[in-house]
Amino acid sequence: MLEAHVVSVNYGERMAVQDVSLRAEPGEITAIIGPNGAGKSTLLRALNGALLPSHGEILLDGDPLRSISRRAIGRRIAVVAQEAELRFPVTVMEFVLSGRYAWSSTGAWGWETDQDVAVAQGVLRETELEDFSARLMNELSGGERQRAVLARALATEASILLLDEPTANLDLAHQAALLWLVRARCDKRRASAIVVTHDINLAAEFADRVLLLLRGQTLAMGTPQEVLTPELLREVFEIRVLVDAHPVTGAPRITPVHEARW
Ligand code: ADP
Ligand code: MG
């Protein structure tokens, strides 16, 4: 389990995240929602140990994250970053296999075992990228590349998934497909996922809990029903929304009401 206790993160003088606490429980998806610049990516980077909090503590299965080696973190936390630097010519298969690297005992060239290859093939199948395995990462569409990044994260078999706007480049069907895959990981393997997203309706459907961030601080934390209210959403996004129940799933359904502001 990954826990943040009253965590603040600064960039020099600027406080990007202030006094945020959360727990990524096994089997649960937590969505982080908030406007641009709210501190969502910064919080995710701190949760992965890439940024050190200026105050507070992050615990991974009870141990301070800062006391755990990068490699050991890499086996337990997988990250799908917002802006991945992927413009190098490796094949999709090589890229996904690199998700197994934290498990390799030698780290030498040709380290991968039959099991690593089997895991990589399994996630390529799950992400519907089998036909792409020999294609080069830098010759894929944005959405295809994003699925490959998810496949790599799943290939780590980490029990904690941190995803930063993972559906941003995906079409409607693949947005839901991605979250179903994350849901399946959480259900079947008791993994936990923290997903930063601008898609409030996807969060309403898939998240067990929602953290609303505004200017680096927690405005609300709770179930989608508790947090995705017209009052709180208006406060965060400064826009009027209607909230009713999705006619098929019953999840909160958020419809913005676009009023002229000028
Ligand atoms: P979000 O992901 O919610 O859009 P970020 O976490 O990226 O927001 O940014 C939070 C705040 O921190 C913003 O004010 C942003 O300008 C600032 N910030 C982000 N990255 C850096 C950085 N590397 N150096 C300085 N300030 C940063
Ligand atoms: Mg961001």
Give an account of the 3D structure.
With 262 residues, the chain is of the alpha/beta class. The chain has a single domain, classed as Rossmann fold (3-Layer(aba) Sandwich). It contains nine helices and twelve strands. The strands form three sheets. Strands 6-7-8-3-9-10 form a six-stranded mixed β-sheet, with helices on both faces. It has a four-stranded antiparallel β-sheet with strand order 2-1-4-5, with helices on one face. The chain is globular and about 60 Å long. Magnesium ion binds next to α1.
Characteristics:
binds adenosine-5'-diphosphate, 262 residues, four-stranded antiparallel beta sheet, Rossmann fold, 12 strands, 9 helices, alpha/beta
User: What kind of assembly state do the chains in view correspond to?
Assistant: single chain
CATH architecture: 3-Layer(aba) Sandwich
Distance between the termini: 47 Å
Please name the fourth-level CATH homologous superfamily.
P-loop containing nucleotide triphosphate hydrolases
The CATH first-level class comes to Alpha Beta
Q: Count structural domains.
A: 1
Largest sheet: 6 strands, mixed
Low-confidence stretches: none
Question: What can be said about this structure in brief?
Answer:
This protein has 262 residues and is α/β, with parallel strands linked by helices. 32% of the residues lie in helices and 27% in strands.
Helix-strand blueprint:
Layout: E1 2-11, E2 14-24, E3 29-33, H1 40-47, E4 55-60, E5 63-64, H2 70-76, E6 77-80, H3 92-97, H4 114-126, H5 142-155, E7 160-164, H6 172-189, E8 192-196, H7 200-206, E9 209-214, E10 217-222, H8 224-227, H9 230-237, E11 240-245, E12 252-257
Helix pairs in contact: 4-5
The protein binds adenosine-5'-diphosphate and magnesium ion.
